[in-house]
Amino acid sequence: MCDSDSRSTEDPPEGGYRTLIDNFPNGVIVLFDSDLRYRIVGPEVLPFSKREAATMVGKDIFELFPSETAARLEPPLESTLEGSAESLDVEFGEHVHHLETAPVEIDGDEYGVLVTQDVSEARETERTLKRQNERLDQFASMISHDLRNPLNVAAGRLELFRETNDADHLTAIEDSLDRIDELTTDLTGLARSEGSVEDYETVSLDAVARSAWKMIDTREATLETEPCSIAGDESQLQALFENLFRNAVGHGGASVTVRVGPLADGFYVEDSGKGIPAEKRDAVFEHGFTTGYSGTGTGLTIVQRIAAAHGFDVSLLDGSAGGARFEFHERDGESESAS
Length: 339
Hints:
Blueprint: H1 17-22, E1 28-32, E2 38-42, H2 61-64, H3 67-81, E3 86-92, E4 95-106, E5 109-118, H4 120-146, H5 148-164, H6 168-192, E6 201-204, H7 205-214, E7 222-225, E8 229-232, H8 234-252, E9 257-263, E10 266-271, H9 299-309, E11 312-318, E12 324-330
Parallel strand pairs: 7-9
Antiparallel strand pairs: 1-2, 1-5, 3-4, 4-5, 6-8, 9-10, 10-12, 11-12
């Protein structure tokens, strides 16, 4: 804090500042001196704290605010007294206040003017819009990513039907089109909200896993499942498995073995592939991460989002056969254990 000087607090400079401060709308305006003491404060009753302005006059910021807040205010206020305008957000309890400062000279002495506005609602709106924009960006990637498999299946079966005229291929095409419709509906819902565990019904994960297995090119890979069920949305969980299986087969080799089974508080999916280096395990869940196991950078983001919507945290570990193991553990009080 600046060294004190000999100026008295008994006669604060008034001038036109008194009128300005008393009539400042929807906020607080302060004139402070080189000791960081408040010389004039207004309006008479502060709109945020309902504090009387008179109780703040003559006190420095370390008397007025908690030490952590005062320590953050000190540098910008001192910088203001040196001639710089400052702008910053400061949290006061549950509120966020935006502060603007400007240097002023009165009768040859340097002062600072501090203007404070409560921007809690505006900042929350900004955060909400940012989250929505991020979800829209991820949604576009999710749609293009997860629609690729059923589209490829439909296209391949259509070509086979043209060659063989076997009606079984039309059934497979119909299944793929139904899957596209489900994915569009479910991923849209996932992008708009985090889901509601209370709305879910009991789902057999081993049955869902086998359905997901049919929707990807498994080559010579093998799926092994154990009986396992949770409360969830069947179609979204199928999308979760499709993404994990696609990664396992694509990066673990054509003959990889994939296992799905229960945990005491969730379930796991592991493969016998190459595994993922420990230093990359956190990054693979980041949207757009494209190195190694995560492929296009979208699949594991989808997995994490679906898991979160079902009340699970997902972690990446070493598999029992040396590959990758994804464990889904319920958050306290949010999901039913797998059985």
